[in-house]
Amino acid sequence: MFSLIPFQAAVPALRPLALAVLVLIAPAQASLAQSAVGVPRSTNGSLPSMGDSSELPAAAERRMGDRIAASIYRDPDYVDDPVLGDYLQSIWQPLMTAARARGELQDELDERFAWEVFLIRDRSINAFALPGGYFGVHLGLIGAVSTSDELAAVLAHELSHVTQRHISRLLTQQSRQAPWMIAAMIVGALAASKSPDAATAAIVGGQAVAAQGQLNFSRDMEREADRVGFGVMQGAGFDSQGVSAMFEKLQQASRLNDSGAFPYLRSHPLNTERIAEVQSRLQLAALSRAAPSPEGQADADKAQLLHAMMAARARVLAIPGVDALRAMVAQAQRRTAAPAAPAAPAAPAARIRDAGALYGGAFASAQLRDFAGARSLWRELQPLTAGVERARQAVDLLGIEIDLLAGVVPPSAATADLAQARSRAEVLTMAQAMTVARRTREVAERLQTWVTAHPGDARAWQMLAVAYGQQNQSVRAIRADAESRVAQRDYPGALDRFKAAQALMRSQPGSADYVEGSIIDARARQVESLVKAQALQDKVDR
Ligand SMILES: [Zn+2]
């Protein structure tokens, strides 16, 4: 990732543990640098990409990624928050589109890889790419960046590591290890990264797997990810200032020697060459950058308002502890205690700051189970989002969440039309509210339509299983549960449940209709072959 001090200068500043880690991974980096020497360069100085025999085939890399993904889904620190998930997707999807349009994302990879971003409950500032098109983003990163442009800068960089096949090249250089073993090491390192003391245990002599569970890219790869990522980010319409703002943050953190909170600084050693390249790219971008139009500025302010609220949400979901939650509530209350502003509307900057503080305060209050306090801050928040559609929607959903946390039926649950819900956050939050209001038939109908369009949505399948269960539709409930396991890449778990559904159909012939029964039989066969293929692959790999 980004860090702004030269690698050599960084070493003495790091803590002893981190230093030990750097020394341990040094052999891997040295061998990467050596092997890079013999690699032919294309004319623009980039590393050769597709079709290079030193790459792991995409299908093999995807299988490895699936194994890692299955363990992340099981991890208690994996966060499926539909609200933050939608926000992340609103940044991620434009980056993917831009990567395709710019020819950075080859068709084969586009189809074979997962292109899935996991949210991880971790307060440190980090994002990383994994094999097979999987990515991890710490809640700490979302909570710490000031704009969606900064987040886009980080994600575009990580995306580019994958589109440029950097991961597959690193993995091939570990060819003495079977892919399943490398996958296991990455999983082990990811787990170890949560416990600083265990970090060094994950370093197995000379592996390209860092203490943070990430891959150590070469300097050339970092520079390429900077260059390609910058183009992708601009192509997606984000402000290139996000890159400089992110670099400034990391530079400051490195001066403060804050590598604990910034795993980036450990995992992505930088050099003066890379910094110079980034700066000249920014200068060039500044030359062609027109002064924002009034409409452009208004759009930027709206994006900022939403970001301030989402950053506050990420900070609360990172479970910062009771004191930190109380501090967020106090900050929001100080704002509401301030003398009422004159009739003139608040300046954009003040409005954005207040919206972030009130959203965070209301959500933190609800986590602390002070629901009256949460509602009062939430009411203060509402007028600030007038005219900003996505922010208003986020505030509406927060109101429902506060009610659900308080154990009361949200008023809108009685009247809402779930068919009108469009975004994932709306569908899933409203479905939850309507389940509490015992409108399970409508919930099941809407979720059934949703999973037909989004078969990989494990959470939606789980909620559908509950809705069917409440209507005593046991076969459908078990099938939905099985599908949620498939979505989480847990094929053996899914097969168990499909078999249970089949057994139930046999013992209670009236429990499912013919169509339902044939679907379950077909899915059971498909998943069984996935389980067998995985077992076979294990033998080949070993
Ligand atoms: Zn990087």
* Strand-pairing-aware structural class: mainly alpha
The main sheet orders its strands as: 1-2-4-3
Ligands bound, unique: zinc ion
The mean pLDDT is 82
Unreliable residue runs: 1-52, 196-213
- Can you count the helices? 25
Tell me the number of strands. 4
Produce a short descriptive summary.
The protein has 542 residues and is mostly helical. Helix content is 66%, strand content 3%. It has a four-stranded mixed β-sheet, with helices on both faces.
Would you give an account of this structure?
- The protein is mainly alpha-helical.
- It has helices at 7-13, 16-37, 58-74, 82-101, 107-112, 139-144, 148-163, 166-172, 179-192, 219-235, 241-255, 263-267, 272-287, 294-317, 322-337, 348-367, 371-381, 389-406, 412-415, 424-436, 440-453, 458-470, 474-487, 491-507, 514-541; strands at residues 78-79, 116-120, 127-130, 134-138.
- A four-stranded mixed beta sheet has the order 1-2-4-3, sandwiched between helices.
- Zinc ion binds at residues 1, 157, 161, 217, 222, 225, 268.
